Amino acid sequence: MGRTLFPLHRQQRRLWVKRRKKQLDEGRIEHLVRSLRNTPADTAEQQQALRLEANYFEGHAERMRYAEFRRQDLFIGSGVVEASCRSVVGARLKRSGMFWTVAGANAIIALRCAQLSDRFDDYWEDRAAA
User: Fold this and answer.
1) Which of 40, 65, 38, 68 is nearest to 54 (CA)?
2) Is the C-alpha dihedral spanning 108, 75, 67, 16 positive or negative?
3) Which of 6, 9, 65, 80 is 20 to 30 A (C-alpha) from 102?
4) How many CB atoms lie within 10 A of CB 106?
């Protein structure tokens, strides 16, 4: 976004982005949205980009309360989820000599996730009800 607004003014771009990142990091999404909506745009492209960004943050505000999540000792990055996916999926699907169809891989992943999250019985109840 900063590059769209300030393509030739690196310092101005850095300052603008730094302020928006601070608002996001502190979980002040309403301030971020207001800042985006109040940022002057020189072109229709910039106006559209600002509108899209503001709408995105406004629509996902509850998922971006990072300061609140940190106070609850929750992770806000994707690293933990990505590592879990590698562990859960990789441990089952990437063993030596295994070959999977997409449908078969999806089925075994669903079973493995249900088992590891202590929802194995729920998984089968849901399947029986379907």
Assistant:
1) 38
2) negative
3) 80
4) 11
